[in-house]
Amino acid sequence: MGATRAQVAREALDRLVVDVPDFPEPGVVFKDITPLLADHDGLTAVVQALADAGRDADGATVVDKVVGMEARGFILGAPVALALGAGFVPVRKAGKLPREAHAVSYALEYGEATLELHRDAIAPGERVLLVDDVLATGGTVKAAGELVAACGGTPVAVAVLMELGFLDGRAVVGDLPVHSLAVI
């Protein structure tokens, strides 16, 4: 029996994600996904595995939209939306969207951030998959979910390449199912 999509994606992550010590500051090990993005087979594997979070057990798509958080969530979320036959919606940093938007501010380890979503990006009742590269403290995912809810949509799951388990972001996310291709 062949490897599952999640296993193939995990192998691609192990092979192609590069640790960069002391970036962007001393003591931080940055996970550089650009080699993964440059590898067609690796990128295909992770997109397919992330898209599985938006499908039911029979493989049917159960989401109407995919939301990708700035910035690497854009890179991953758009092809996930295509794989699911769903629309893609970007969640941006404050001041980047040209039309009326909902905004949510949240605390970071080093300050505060604000995310925005166009008010008409998600229709009431639409089911939404949240996609990002890393789940760390959970603040970005929680804020994105609040933005979706402000539009009247329903977040149904989170899909990420990597989860920093030692930061316990799942606790902040709450009951929303988290699909992580790798826990670090």
Automatic annotation (TrEMBL):
Residue stretches making up the Phosphoribosyltransferase domain: 59-163
A GO CC term assigned to this protein in UniProt: cytoplasm
EC numbers on record: 2.4.2.7
Compartments reported by the entry: Cytoplasm
Keywords of this entry: Cytoplasm, Glycosyltransferase, Purine salvage, Transferase
Function recorded in the entry: Catalyzes a salvage reaction resulting in the formation of AMP, that is energically less costly than de novo synthesis.
Summary of subunit composition and partner proteins: Homodimer.
Name the UniProt record assigns to this protein: Adenine phosphoribosyltransferase
